[in-house]
Design a protein that fits this description.
Elements lengths: L1 H14 L3 E12 L2 E4 L4 E4 L2 E2 L12 H12 L3 E5 L11 E7 L2 E2 H7 L4 E2 L9 H13 L21 E4 L4 E4 L3 H4 L6 E4 L2 H6 L3 E2 L6
Parallel strand pairs: 3-6, 10-12
Antiparallel strand pairs: 1-2, 1-5, 2-3, 4-8, 5-6, 6-7, 9-10, 9-11
Helix pairs in contact: 3-4
EC number: 3.1.31.1
Protein name: Thermonuclease
Keywords: Activator, Endonuclease, Hydrolase, Nuclease, Signal
Length: about 210
């Protein structure tokens, strides 16, 4: 009996997230990136938010930024890592908790961000996709925004995704011409691409 209880406890412990480090969130860059008190930039794994860039910001970017800031600024951030700990811009990749709040679920449930799964960091992919599906059905947040009507969609597969970037495009987008054939994934609808974890191209706005 003791052996069975020990095994059950071990399984439970192994199933809990590995909280590697804790620091205070000192600055919010946008809805998916923050700066910690140790000056480390954290990129939230597996999600993509509207961008607050110079010029014309993405729709809903200001609302998403403010939501993230109001939730996390000045609070202790608990970091959980996946397979890769850094991305190409040297930002740290982490699943981030604040007190008992898993920031990802809140942002996705309220429509402030979209799923962008890039292997091998896929720990919470299924959970987040399930939440996103419900949020889309309820037209919350970014899902209230109607995509630009497209008059050219006469291709058998109107949308083409890139396996590497996890972005999807209108079939006539210039990015598709530059894409290697082995990296192309074809979709019949915008919804299919989103459900597969792809995010829309910023150039052609599918």
């Amino acid at each position: 009996m003791k052996k069975v209880l020990f095994i059950l406890m071990l399984i439970t412990l192994l199933s809990l997230p590995i909280i590697a480090q804790t620091y205070q969130a000192s600055k919010v860059i946008d809805c998916d990136t923050i700066e910690l008190s140790n000056e480390e930039w954290i990129r939230y794994i597996g999600i993509n938010a509207p961008e607050l860039r110079n010029g014309i910001p993405d729709p809903y970017s200001q609302e998403a930024f403010e939501a993230n800031r109001n939730l996390v600024i000045g609070k202790e951030a608990y970091l959980e890592f996946d397979v890769q700990e850094r991305e190409r811009y040297d930002r740290m990749l982490a699943y981030t908790y604040f007190d008992d709040l898993f920031i990802y679920t809140w942002l996705v449930e309220n429509g402030y961000t979209q799923i962008m799964t890039i292997p091998p960091n896929v720990t919470y992919q299924d959970l987040l996709l399930e939440l996103q599906t419900k949020t889309r059905e309820e037209n919350r947040g970014i899902w209230e925004i109607e995509p630009v009507e497209n008059k050219k969609e006469d291709s058998e597969f109107p949308y083409v995704g890139n396996k590497n970037s996890k972005k999807f495009h209108h079939y006539y987008c210039g990015s598709v011409d530059d894409m290697k054939e082995k990296n192309k994934v074809f979709f019949l609808s915008r919804e299919d691409a989103v459900e597969a974890g792809y995010v829309p191209c910023k150039r052609c706005h599918p």
